[in-house]
Amino acid sequence: MLENRSNMDWGLKNRLSSIIKPQNNRALMLAVDHGYFLGPTEKLEDPKKVIAPLLKHCDSLMVTRGVQRASVPATTGTPMVLRVSGGSSIIGEDLSQEDITVSIEDAIRLNASALAMSIFVGSKYEYQTIVNLGKLVSEAEKYGLPVLAVTAVGKELGKDARYLSLACRVAAEQGAHIVKTYYCDNFEKVVQSCPVPIIVAGGKKIPERDALQLTYNAIKGGAVGVDMGRNIWQSEHPVSMIRAVRAIVHNNQNVDQAFKLYKKLVSEEPRKKSNNNKSNNPNQKKSNKPNNPNQNKPHQNQK
Ligand code: R5P
């Protein structure tokens, strides 16, 4: 797919190929940018600890500049996809009221391989976020920086193929080089009507096998890969989980094979120390629910 885009500048094409691997046109992005509007999201309270063991297993990291500087070693070879939009929080009035919060100069200082921002199609601030996307693409292309547009979904907006096709197409028309969206029924239609690569968000935490199924379905439906957060680092076994997701994205494994791999990797993990005599046997049935199910509620409803 990258080869077809001969109008791209060398730098832009080179950066894009560090995110979507040209060998197989696939991408595994690890999303850790949730704190930009959620604050200390459950199990992402200490980003440094979360990111460290996962960094070598993803193709790129989706991150804010604050967490990148404070929590990602500058010696890493993993490309950074830098979130450059923000301005509202989960306790504020309207999540869709976002602006560009990071300059291109700072993104370059941070050696970003791509910039990411959200658009809120159909929301009160639709106009502002879409115009911002167009402006960001114009600025970023001057420096050969690709832009990933996130089709954010407000609580009042659906996640069906009709809405997501519209949102993805709007993002692509503004010049986004990659569009991030959600998996949905008739996902193929979303992909077919979007002229640039689509990457799928993981969404709220679900059982590991279901998250692997989502990954498989997304790839089968035409996505280049996943940009997954909560279903990796909210898992009891984040490294095993990201390796299983990777097996689907990059090694064409099916869901059974990837889940088998996940269980094998879990069984090989060193046992965690426990103070309360609880068994850490990974083969025992464990709840996939977050410790405090209410903590994630607003995020689940709004994005
Ligand atoms: C949300 O706005 C953030 O951009 C996340 O990066 C995105 O939702 C993907 O993370 P998750 O897989 O947890 O949905």
Outline the structure in words:
The protein has 303 residues and is an alpha/beta fold. The protein is 40% helix and 14% strand. The chain has 13 helices and ten strands. The strands form two sheets. Strands 1-2-3-6-7-8-9-10 form an eight-stranded parallel beta barrel, surrounded by six helices. The longest helix has 17 residues, at 126-142. It is globular and about 50 Å long. The model is unreliable at 276-303 (pLDDT under 50). The structure holds ribose-5-phosphate (R5P). Ribose-5-phosphate is lined by residues 31, 33-34, 62, 150, 152, 201-203, 227-231, 303.
Helix and strand run: HEHHEHEEEHEHEHEHEHEHHHH
- The CATH top-level class label: Alpha Beta
CATH homologous group name: Aldolase class I
Residue share in helix: 40-55%
Structural class: alpha/beta
Counted up, domains total 1
Residue fraction in strands? 5-15%
Roughly how many Å apart are the termini? Answer: 29 Å
Give the biggest beta sheet. Answer: 8 strands, parallel, barrel
Show the helix and strand layout:
Layout: H1 10-19, E1 27-31, H2 35-38, H3 47-54, E2 60-64, H4 65-71, E3 80-83, E4 85-86, E5 99-100, H5 104-109, E6 114-119, H6 126-142, E7 147-151, H7 161-173, E8 178-181, H8 187-192, E9 198-201, H9 208-220, E10 225-228, H10 230-233, H11 238-251, H12 255-268, H13 297-302
Helix pairs in contact: 9-11, 9-12, 11-12
This protein binds ribose-5-phosphate.
Ribose-5-phosphate binds at residues 31, 33-34, 62, 150, 152, 201-203, 227-231, 303.
